[in-house]
Structures are given as structure tokens and as C-alpha cells.
Amino acid sequence: MIKKYFYNDNFYKKIIKKKKDPRTLKEYKKILKYKKIIKFVYQNKPLGTGDAVLKTKNIIKDKFFLMLLPDDLIVKKNCSKSMIQIHKKYKASVMASMNVSKKTVSRWGIYKLKKKMDKNNFLIEDVIEKPSIKEAPSNKAVIGRYILPKKIFAKLLSQKPGKGGEIHITDSIQTLIKENQKFIAHNFSGKYLDCGSMNGYIKSAIEISKL
User: Fold this and answer.
1) CATH value at residue 74
2) Which of 56, 84, 89, 124 is buried deepest, with most CB atoms within 10 A?
3) Alpha carbon 23 to chain centroid, angstroms
4) Burial of 74 per CB tally in 10 Å (0-12, 13-18, 19+)
């Protein structure tokens, strides 16, 4: 559906011809611009976030890359921009973080923090994917924004499936942390909207309609 949006030229040309509205032409030119930039890879089976990231291995050229999960929305403040600033400051990987209810820790990747770096940033000692309440080292959760090192692909290639039979990106992150790679938890200041459930999706749509 997303690819069709960018490649449906005949559909847009018909609208432009029929409406003769310069705003429509302006939007279509934006689509053409992004069409040249966006590359598509496909995960044919739902084998986990780690497996999905691994599909991009031959596209990522830089030492670090930004990953955004579509069911986690952060509005009102650009979380990615602030994470890039932290990455540049500390020359490290960065993951968005927020406090969640202890009752819901089994939905998230949960951090164990090593030390405070400044007001909103903490060095990570451990990260556990979807722990039980007893296993959880804290109530600080990974939110779907990551700046990750390219070397994570080597870990994903050899990683065995974890909980639910999926390849979890957090398991490979944990391996890199154990090898003394620096990962920072960044407490972002935007508003988080959870689209990971139908109820959350509906609430998020209502919230966005008010912006």
C-alpha cells in the first residue's frame, strides 16, 4: 500500500488534470521527490524486528543509522532530531526511553541503567526484551526510535530466535552492550502515542486530529 502511494502516477495525473488545482500539483511533486529517495525491502514472514532490520543490510552504508517503528508515534517535539544531537555529542548509539507502568513491562524492551550522563540521558547496562514483572530490571522502556551501529548486522546474522520465535533487535543490542559498545537511553520530551493496539490506534488518530 505504501509503495503504491508513491508509484501510482496515473492516478495522480488524472486528479491533476480534473481538478486543475496548483496545490495538488505541488503535493504530487513532493511524492516524485521522495519516490527517488525511498527504497523498499520486504519481510515476507513476521520473524521479528531484528529480521526486518537485517533485510536492509545491503542498503545501509553509514556507520550508524536511524530506525523508526511506525506504531510508536512521538508528536509535538522531534524526538529523532534530539537523538541525533545526543549521538553526535557522545559518539554512541541512542534509544528513546520513557517510564512505563510496572504492570505493562512485558510489552516492552526494558533497560537496566548503568549511570546518569546528564538530565535526560543514561548509559545502559542491560536491555531485556518483554520481561516478566519479576525479571524487569526497571520500568524504563525502549520506545521505537533507535540510532544503531552498522555492526549490529553481523550480530543479527548469527542471532537465534528469542521469545515468540522471533529475532528481536534488543537481543543483538544486548550482545553489543556486553562487548562494551556504548548505548544511551534518551528520555525524550515529545508526546508519545501508542498505535500498537486497536484501542491505542483509535486514541492516537483522535489525538492527531486535534494537532
Assistant:
1) 3.90.550.10
2) 124
3) 31
4) buried
- C-alpha cell of 149? 551501529
- Dihedral of CA atoms 148, 151, 155, 156 in degrees, nearest 10, equals 60
Whether 17 and 78 map to the same domain: the answer is no
Closest by CA to 156, choosing from 144, 168, 147, is 168
Shared domain for 53 and 33, answered yes or no, is no
Per-residue b/e over 22-55, b at no fewer than 16 CB within 10 Å? eeeeeebeeeeeeeeeeeeeeeeeebbbbbbbbe
Angstrom distances, CA of residue 86 to CA of 48, 98, 146, 151, 168:
27, 16, 12, 19, 24
Question: Quick one: angle between helices 9-19 and 22-37, nearest 10?
Answer: 160
In a domain, 91, yes or no: yes
Claim to verify: residue 26 and residue 99 sit in the same structural domain: no
User: What is the domain range of residue 21?
Assistant: 2-37
The CB density around residue 211, as the number of other CB atoms within 10 Å, is 7
pLDDT per residue as tens, the chain (211 positions): 888 888 888 888 899 989 888 898 998 999 999 988 999 999 999 999 999 999 999 999 999 999 999 888 999 999 999 999 999 999 999 999 999 998 889 988 899 999 999 989 999 999 988 899 999 999 999 999 999 999 999 999 999 988 888 999 989 999 999 999 999 999 999 999 988 889 989 999 998 898 8
